[in-house]
Amino acid sequence: MTAATVYRLDVPSWHGRPPLTDNMRLHWRQRAERVRLVRDGVHWLAKQQHIGTHSHVTVQLHYAPGDNRRRDEDNLNPTSKAACDGLVDAGIVPDDTPKYMTKLMPKLHAGHGFQQLWLEIEVTA
According to DSSP H, which parts of the chain are helical? Predict the structure, then answer.
């Protein structure tokens, strides 16, 4: 049996909300700014945690919105994509293709009065 290590990275938010969702209709420059925020943030947080280089990781974005309104998990896919690209930029894996990275559907958690957005990276040794 192989042991797994799970790392948690707090993903940068945009004024208290997820930076990117499928429902946003942004100008290309605004979208690029938000992608850069997530991608660079995850890159540097991964470097700070000394995750290292691996042959394969499993990644899942988590979001606790702070309230209990209805939301779709798949709307968070653009934020998840930018976060996965940040892991590649950090050198955790060579690419974000299925050979190196399993991307799980983003997960929503019940609101508890404050918002959290984080990425869990599971590394199997």
Answer: 28-48, 77-89
pTM passes above 0.85 = yes
Is 68 exposed, middle or buried (CB count within 10 Å of its CB: 0-12, 13-18, 19+)? Answer: exposed
Question: Any idea how long the chain is?
Answer: 125
Give the model confidence (pLDDT) of 17-55 as tens digits: 788 888 889 999 999 999 999 999 999 999 999 999 999
State the Cα angle at 109 between 104 and 111, rounded to 5°.
155
The CATH number of domain 4-124 is 3.30.1330.70: yes
DSSP characters over 47-62: HHTT----S-EEEEEE
